[in-house]
Amino acid sequence: MSTDYQHAREALGARLRELRLSAASGRLTGPQLASRLGWPHSKVYKLEGGRQTAAADDLRAWADAVGQPDTAEELLGRLAGFESHIRSWRRQLAAGHRPVQDTWNAAVDRARTIRAFEEAVIPGMLQTADYARHIFLRYADLHGTKRDTEDAVRARMERQAWLYQGGRRFHALVWEAALHALVCPPAVLVAQLDRLAGTVGMDTVELGVIPLSASLRIPAANGFWILDEQLVIAEDWHAELWLDDAETVGSYLRVWETLRESAVYGADAQNVIGRARRALNPRA
């Protein structure tokens, strides 16, 4: 969890504690407030201590319970402020994957230069529709969310139009492990690898593959995207991080450049892709 996010969550918790201690009916203890809310008292202390992220309904209920309903908008504003950086999958995917893809499309459309590193999957900008379909299905199963798979696939394919616009540049780094990961049927992965090999040499794409045998200066950890050196988007299992402070963006740029030193390009990249393809279909 980012330090800025945690500080913001702790600041919200301190404000909640302040409201509890200055309740309209008089100072409330944690157990007293929990009783009013019908919560375990541990939830009160977790929220106040910044150890749990409040839901919007939690904040409205808190404001009402302390007799200060007019503070709800302030609390919701604080929550929106730091949730714009840490976007939980539970909340983002409540309406399905398509809205998430639309948000991505808007951010990508504004960018001129994108750097991406993926260690376990093919980057979305370079995915086939069939490969993307299986990725969305896997995550819908994991999170138990709405299956709007076809709409999500269409949105991801729409994003790829960016690759065919002049003045754009997509610098993609892929760890070789992603070329072997059977997150889809083998036949789908074969077609995906053919698509990936076909992007080598595109005017708008610079594809680097980091071989499993390459010497790494740093571990090939979680994937991330950098848009115009102004915004970083990174995924974790619980949330998607949208980070735009200069220091954080600078850190991710250094990571990207360090990983890039281990990548191969052009014919060498195609050879690594071809090796992965032959492992799936030795007669190809």
How would you describe what is shown here?
The chain has 284 residues and is an alpha/beta fold. The chain has 2 domains: 3-84, Orthogonal Bundle (434 Repressor (Amino-terminal Domain)), CATH 1.10.260; 88-280, Endonuclease, Chain A, CATH 3.30.870. It has 13 helices and 7 strands. It has helices at 3-21, 30-37, 41-48, 56-65, 72-83, 89-92, 97-110, 129-143, 149-159, 177-180, 186-199, 246-260, 266-280; strands at 86-88, 113-118, 169-175, 205-210, 224-227, 231-235, 239-243. Strands 1-7-6-5-2-3-4 form a 7-stranded mixed sheet. A hairpin with a 3-residue loop joins strand 5 (224-227) and strand 6. Helix 2 crosses helix 3. The longest helix is centred in the N-terminal third of the chain and has 19 residues, at 3-21. The protein is elongated. The two termini are 44 Å apart. The model has no long low-confidence stretch (mean pLDDT 92).
